[in-house]
Amino acid sequence: MTTYQKIVLASRPKGAVSADNFRLETAPVPTITDGQVLIRNHYLSLDPYMRGRMEDTKSYAAPQAIGEVMIGGTVGEVIDSKNTKFSVGDKVVGGSGWAEMCVSDGQMLRKVDTAHIPLSAYLGSVGMPGMTAWYGLTQIMQPKAGETIVVSAASGAVGSVVGQLARIRGCRAVGIAGGPEKCAYVVDELGFDACVDYKSPTFLADLAAATPDGIDAIFENVGGVVFDAALARMNPFGRIAMCGLIAGYNGEPMVMNNVRMILTMRLTIRGFIVAEHLEFWPEGLKELGTLVATGKLKFRESVAEGLAAAPEAFMGLLKGKNFGKQLVKLV
Amino acid sequence: MTTYQKIVLASRPKGAVSADNFRLETAPVPTITDGQVLIRNHYLSLDPYMRGRMEDTKSYAAPQAIGEVMIGGTVGEVIDSKNTKFSVGDKVVGGSGWAEMCVSDGQMLRKVDTAHIPLSAYLGSVGMPGMTAWYGLTQIMQPKAGETIVVSAASGAVGSVVGQLARIRGCRAVGIAGGPEKCAYVVDELGFDACVDYKSPTFLADLAAATPDGIDAIFENVGGVVFDAALARMNPFGRIAMCGLIAGYNGEPMVMNNVRMILTMRLTIRGFIVAEHLEFWPEGLKELGTLVATGKLKFRESVAEGLAAAPEAFMGLLKGKNFGKQLVKLV
Fold it and tell me: Which chain B residue's Cα is nearest to A249?
């Protein structure tokens, strides 16, 4: 190989993301210098937060620059190294972005063990999505055994971990997902106590039936009417971890109607970005890695084949077409 | 005196509170038994939270019962005592409700010193409203010197204390109030750095001008569009103490539009009821009492004369017609 492919941000979305927001480019394979490693990426992670970066608005992170490689987490293999900490053949987790190859100085690169944990899981349950779930649950929702927790996008990379970790802590875990197939998976495969289909005409009644003792904590990935419905069922002193608002990513109005519940139920709502809490990662990844290696934490992956498939897979993710963690397989 | 007057809840409001929701009744002065004291109330406190109790909806407190004396804080004087802890002539703070007299077993009654602090202040800056401000500021907003805090209903019993305490802690204190007269008072008398008139057509621009470095913490008494405007200017890791939502007390839609800010700015929003945090009262009341006694904490009172004036004064309070702490003078 003398060249590799990458995908850059061609333009910012106006409303929904479209294919012409991206451009596939070919570049020569770089030559590394002292201290650097060359990585062949095996999997690219697609995550909802990328949608926010495509916008040029005030947010927690700088916007993705036009013409630069789309940001993103990756796992791959070191294929050349002039860095004493990494050898050819090492499996690594990094943030190369939407590209088949990348050069790293080793700073943000982490060697991982694939003997008991599949490489792709380091982009999911044992990576940023898993840590997002772990942090939100343990640090914000702080659930006690016997409490009821609700998580939206429950079949996704983050939501699936939230519910399983809550079950391990003795909680009643109730998922919200789109469609009977995802709901069946959440209950039958992931072991949630219940899962409610937000697309069903009986959604409100179903949510009430699934949370007979009210809701003590919410992990919110979606926002909008689904969130409002859960908010209305909160118990006193409930906690809400605000992780994502995918329902409004394309600029749809995103209102909260049950604001009064914050006061009358003395709720705590906290937005968070897991990358700002790196001090918790060792503890969290240890629990997540052990659970995955021993088969106690289940996950599912939607895998698109080849870098060129990334834009369509990403657009599907934003519409909830994925089922579990959305990846792009590059090798 | 062989009889006294009291006001009971006659009916629940449909929309705005009206005079026929209340009924003035006359009762014989009670005879006290062992352990009891008889109190002649001097001042009755009117507070926005009473509006919530008039509703029969799920909230943090049981609704006010129909036909019973309207709840409320009072200060007065012991005029008969069969309780060894209280003597005739003692000045006391209690929760007698809307009545000229009441009998107490002494449990929820507190003797106060009026040598340096006027009796009425125990219903305001050195009472529940002051403690509401103190708790929200110190425990939820946790302001650091140099930060900008915003408080709505800034000329009111709670808001006026929030801003003054924040100034003492080295913050830039920005109030929001209704009309130029209240705004002038908030700046000129209370010493806030700025106050923005929410009734002005230039409100949004004025708020931006008053908070050039954004907003680090909000004390929210009002809700609705005023709150949304402040929310839009929050800095990362901002804190919001949700104390009241007076804009929606009559059932008006109460939506939050800038929900996304919770996530992008990693905000923490917490609703609270100061009566649930009694462990902080000694510390808070000590600071508030010292500040009032030394003239460093200023306040203003709107005083209605006579129990029969209470309903109209209360309706005025809900419309923001009061200026400072709303009281009813009974003696």
Answer: B260
